[in-house]
Amino acid sequence: MRADEVVGCHVLVIGSGGAGVRAAIEASQYGETVLISKTIVGKGGCTTMAEGGYNAVLRDVDTCGGHFEDTMKGGAFLNDPQLADILTREAPMRMGDLVKWGAVFDFTDTDEVAQRPFGGQRFPRTCYAGDRTGHEMMMTLVDRLSYVMEHAKNVTVLNEYTVIDLLKEGDVVIGALALDEKGNIVVMKADSTVLATGGGTRVYDISTNSSSGTGDGYAMGYRAGAELIDMEMVQFHPTGAIIPYDARGRLVTEAVRGEGGVLKNANGERFMKAYDPARMELSTRDVVARAIATEILKGRGTKNGGVYLDVTHLSREHIETRLPVMLEQFLKFGVDIRTTPMEVAPTAHHIMGGLRITPECRTTLHGLFACGEVSGGVHGANRLGGNALAETQVFGKRAGEAAGKAPVRKKAVDERQVDACRKRLDAFLSGSTNPAQVKRQLQLAMWEGAGIFRTSIALEETLHTIRHLQTVNLKAASARNLAECCIVQNMCLTASLICRSALLRTESRGAHVRTDVAKTHEPEHSPFGHTFVSLTRQGIETKEAKA
Amino acid sequence: MKELTVTVRRFDPDVDKEPRYVTYQVKVNNGARVLNVLHAIHDSIDPTLSYRWSCASGQCGSCAVRVNGEPVLACMEEATDNMKVEPLNLDVKKDLVTDLVPRLEQIASLVPKTEIVMPKKADIEAMKPLKDCIECLSCVSVCPAVDVTKFIGPTAMRQEMRLALDPRDSGDRISDAVRDGLFTCTTCQACWKVCPKEIQTPAKAIEKLRAHANRRGFTLPRHKEVAAMVQETGRSIPRTSESFLEKVPDVIEPDGPVKATVGLFIGCVYNLRQQQSALDAMEVLKRNGIRVIIPKEQVCCGSPLIRTGQLAYIDELKRRNIETFTSRKIDTVLTMCAGCGSTLKHDYETPFTVIDINELLTKYGIEPPAILPIKATYHDPCHLMRGQGVKVEPRQLIRQVVDLVEMPAICCGSGGGVRSGNPDEAAALGKRRGDEISKTGAEIVITSCPFCEFHIAGHTDRPVKNIMTVLLEGYREKDRKTAK
Fold first, then answer.
1. CA dist., res. A485 & res. B101, Å (int)
2. Can A257 be counted among the known catalytic residues?
3. Partner of A58 at 20 to 30 A CA spacing, among B12, B88, B96, B162?
């Protein structure tokens, strides 16, 4: 292996989705910034796949207080109120940035940004660009990043570099270790490091996530000693595709229901009336996902194992202009949604938990910041549709700013850590088991034992399986495959954090349902706060004793 | 589950001198996409296979590859047995992974104005059709101009147009587009035919930018001369001898019973330069029961002006041509020039049906000609194959008269005003076409467009013949045999 390459900068941003790129744009105002991406900036991550929209209070008749209340109620009051408050207050300003930078959101006839209704919200406040909202945002952010790179010349982008661990000097994070595409180690030194690695629901067999939703940020943060909260809070999106088999889990946007789509079981009944007669299909995602899962479990599902999501009553033009991506995707798989109902079932979508952060996006580790899905606390026990895109911008900016303002420091790389990393990688080159097999076993185990309905027995079994998978000697078929081995280990670790946290929370709340625990309280009266896990401690906060 | 046999092009620059093709047997689920096949190879046969993917739902543009030669998104295209998977025709980093970043970096970004400007709904609606691009670069990988010039490529032009429409942008998009090769596009339509989002870059970006460029005085001198000639004479090329329209009667009656009556739109090149091909076509039509009405006051369709962004005189041309046929109550207009046909079909709103001669003859069927002992290859005119979707019909006709060997369908370089405006580029593309022709070992080249016919003739040592001429030769041979 050749001598390690060393890259130094003021701010290192890890991850190139909406939060990462927003953070890099902001950080560049304060000093040399490096944006490092496992993929190609603009193509990876889940922001670009986000379809439905971005929640922001833009009208006089709507209020940030209303958005805050909806967010807290939707989150079963587990949200960190301060973070939720910031989200709702700053989402409109960050939307303003996007529009200023050239975003092409849909407009109303009176030349205002258009908004559509989304689940769990009292006001239609979800801004959109057809059903390719995240793509529009990502294109705008990449465009702006290019502009900054051309004019400020203090941002460097490293595409297709995989960060495999955070670098520490004592208790302080001073950058990261990465692999280039050929498997060479690159040492990245930074005064501030921002984790913007997104989520990790690819640990489940059925997931909406892109190839990068492998939980790397949770795992790297945990290994470095950061504390994570509410990792049991995994959102199952109610509507994922189910056929063909390989397309299972593909997101069918909430905008379908926002635009008037209805859910029906195999008997043709609009079953949501039995679960949430007031809000029906536009109930919160946790409620709708459980309703669909229940219908299927009770034998009222379609023969393909889903329920119907029907827009055939809408006009063709409405479908073609508001849901063009859905139309195109389903047509590719032989279903014309203008004439035939879609078949859908829940799919693992979003991890509400993550690294514990302050309003400045500081984690519990000095020198390490986090923003976007990898952080926890904003969404509580269930995220409202449209709040994730807003979160990426609000907290991406905050993280970039705080990281940028942090002082310049002298940093000494701990050679022992680099040596340990090299040994870890060498072991993969002489390993024995194909990481793809381990990944597959993990995904099946998680879907089976840590899905929508949970029990302590199943969670313990799943944790046992994961612990076994964590001991397997993964094999890298070539140096280019080293990153894959690291990623599969990150997936196993993230999965274990989900199971451990799910065991800690002995209540049903939001997306987390423990069928082995009797209901004793409504969410707002829960005696429990966040679950927390770190290298040194784990537990659940209670109202009396906050951790 | 099902088992598929697939061939994948592998190449590791650290080890291989040349790409190699490896065949795999994989088990995949019913309905599996190309990406699932690649996953299956990677996960269970050879983990060193490199390919790029991210969203797996057609939204990120990471996974474009060629399947059986055609660019597709691996995540959306259904896998088929015996398919061949290759990287896009871009610089290959390893196996199916191509170097996208240098091309992505060429795409322009918005330069905000100092004052805050908000777009109007109308601006938003104008930009939207150009905003679906997922930057998969399939378009760049098939663009002939990118191959032989410094042209920045279709999607970068799409972005220039999108920015030109944006009131928030302060950049000079038209100058930039001209600098980056706006006039090198042959309007071959290859880019949007492979675009997974079906963004019509030639019509919605290139030609629109050229129209802006025209108003800014950037139109190439040679293109201006053509426009001046059209305005003066109604024709895009000079009259050097008796024209086709002067030579033929107003109506040509068929030999046998009338199967159909059509009005002929001849177009400038057949009228004034490739007249023999057009006269041969009349013989073929006559022999096959087609009654042809030939109005003499017809003028240039306007294609050379529309393709180069010179729109001032277009409405007048359209009006005159439409009136010419409607005044005679003609309900079907026949074109034999690929460019005119495509223009009449897409740039006009005609009260009559427009049909290409290959479509017409296959629709009504032809008398079988004698089979000539000739090995021929066929050049697909861009404005016929991609512009009008006519690909099968010419082959059905050709196979009745000669032995056909196929070659890749690539642009000859004569379209979009490139032959007149950028002759070096046209020559470079013509040479590539000539090289492909040589590889086939064919004795003659057949085509069905007067521009292609004329241009290719300068870049191959084989005779280039119009499809109608070859059919006529088949009939003459048949007659000779019968006479014996």
1. 25
2. yes
3. B162
Q: In which band, very low, low, confident or very high, does the pLDDT at A51 lie, cut at 50, 70 and 90?
A: confident
Question: Among partner residues B28, B101, B166, which is closest to A40 by beta-carbon distance?
Answer: B101
Distance between CA atoms of residues A366 and A364, nearest Å: 7
**Does residue B315 contact residue B301 with C-beta atoms inside 8 Å?**
no
- Least CB–CB distance from B33: residue in A108, A210, A246: A246
Cβ–Cβ contact B111 with A under 8 A: yes
For residue A52, the model assigns a pLDDT of 86
Is residue B223 one of the residues assigned to a domain? Answer: no
Structural domain contains residue A462 = yes
Q: Which residue has the higher pLDDT, B84 or A4?
A: B84
- Residue B410: give the domain boundaries: 364-483
In a domain, B396, yes or no: yes
| The pLDDT of residue A545 is above 60 | no
Place of tokens 């996409």: B33
Question: pLDDT-derived band of residue A5, with 50, 70 and 90 as boundaries?
Answer: confident
Q: Does B105 touch chain A (CB under 8 A)?
A: yes
Q: Is the pLDDT of residue A119 over 80?
A: yes
pLDDT given for residue A534 in this prediction: 98
Same domain, B195 and B120: yes
User: pLDDT, tens digit, for every residue of B427-447?
Assistant: 999 999 999 999 999 999 999
Where chain B has pLDDT below 70, the residues are: none
Of all residues in chain A, the one with the smallest CA distance to B1 is: A245
> Taking a C-beta distance cutoff of 8 angstroms, is the pair B243, B267 a contact?
no
What are the residues whose beta carbons fall under 8 Å from the beta carbon of B277, sequence distance 6 or more?
A: B270, B336, B450, B453, B466, B468, B469
Joined tokens for residue A372: 């976007």
Same domain as A520, residue A432: yes
Contacts of A484 in chain B (CB under 8 A): 47
Query: What's the structural domain count of chain B?
Result: 4
Cα gap A145→A156, rounded to integer Å? 10
User: Which B residues in the span 130-149 are in contact with A, Cβ-Cβ below 8 Å?
Assistant: 131-132, 134-135
Task: Give residue A153's pLDDT.
Answer: 87
Q: What is the mean pLDDT of residues A129-145?
A: 96
Same domain, yes or no, for B437 and B372? yes
ipTM for the complex?
0.96
> Residue A152's pLDDT is what?
86
Please give the structure tokens belonging to residue A150: 């051309």
Contact assignment for B31 to A245 by CB distance below 8 Å: yes
Number of domains observed in the structure of chain A = 2
Partner A contacted by B44 (CB < 8 A): yes
Q: Residue A1: its pLDDT value, please? A: 42
Catalytic residue check, A464: no
SS (H, E, C) A187-201: EEEEEEEEECCCCCH
* Residue after which a domain boundary falls, among B97, B122, B155: B97
CATH number at residue A491: 1.20.58.100
Domain enclosing residue A534, as ranges: 415-538
A315 contact partners, CB below 8 Å, separation of at least 6: none
Residue B451 pairs in a beta bridge with none
Q: What does the alpha-carbon distance between residue B326 and residue B321 come to, in Å, rounded to a whole number?
A: 9
Is A146 part of a structural domain of the chain? no
**Residue A3 confidence (pLDDT):** 57
Which of B29, B62, B121 is opposite residue A246, by nearest beta carbon?
B29
